[in-house]
Write a structure and sequence with these properties.
By secondary structure, the protein is of the alpha/beta class. The chain has a single domain, classed as Alpha-Beta Barrel (TIM Barrel), CATH 3.20.20. The protein is built from eleven helices and ten strands. The strands form two sheets. An eight-stranded parallel β-barrel has the order 3-4-5-6-7-8-9-10, surrounded by six helices. The radius of gyration is 20 Å and the shape is globular. It holds the Pfam family Aldo_ket_red. Keywords: Oxidoreductase. This is Aldo/keto reductase.
Amino acid sequence: MVQLMKYTTFGRTGLRVSELVLGAMTFGEQGGVGAPLDECRRILDRYAAAGGNFVDTAINYRGGASEEFVGELLAGRRDRFVVGTKYTVTRDATDPNGGGNHRKNLRLSLETSLRRLRSDHIDVYWVHLWDEHTPIEETMRALDDAVTAGQVLYVGVSDAPAWVVSRANTLAEWRGWTPFAGLQVPYSLLNRDAERELLPMATAYGLTVTAWGPLGGGVLSGKYTAGQPSRARLQRDNLTEHDLSVATVVQEVADELGATPAQVALAWVRQHADVLPLIGARTVAQLDDNLACLDLTLPPEALSRLEAATGFTAGFPSDFITQNTPWVLGAAAL
């Protein structure tokens, strides 16, 4: 396969990452539908052949099998890839300190991930989820210590309020600690919440955004528009009318453009918000379908049609501020 992907810098760093991120949550068959090692090898090889270099996993994915698979599959070529993993989720539900964003869990989680990944460092270490019980000062200082020790190169944060991320990076700036360079959020035509606060905040701080769930849990892949698929995490009857109506518009646009619904959904994420979609696949065929979004440019009419189908509004305060800008600035608002 000819190299397709372009690269961008990760946040305000010089690290170059590909425009599609390979999500390794499907690597392993523990805890549900996933992919065996041999298929994961084919998926990773195909992704690399397309120019992809950014692999995303977490300490808890597939009970640890995901990190172990990534470690085995990257043996001998580790330095060619940017490997990101996450901590926060408990390592042991019976241990009161087995999870969270405090220093103890960070250190033990990091040691576990390094061992599984067969590496002496993590390229991007993500805080997986905001832990309201741990002061953000402790988390940022502990992450900075891991960077100083050479075990982590860059840090990012996933699934946290915008004010938490903003405060964290302001503290890092004031105290000379390593700031977050990346933000990971759920983002798709079915979930545009990140547009309210998180995406504007990321732009202001120069954070690279990676989007998980760009296919809306598979709803936007097209497999639900014709009925209940044989293998699916969701039951069609449990989907809302809104979700099905958006999926139908995605299918219609795909048919008109000679593309697949998954390609349209991924192309919208890339074009609308300039974020890096996380693509997860259980088979090479699924990966190939996702990779083809790189060749698809949605025309303005299609973008408007897709966005209108979502019925999304930014809400307060964004809409209020926009509506009242002429009142505030007068002629200068024109």
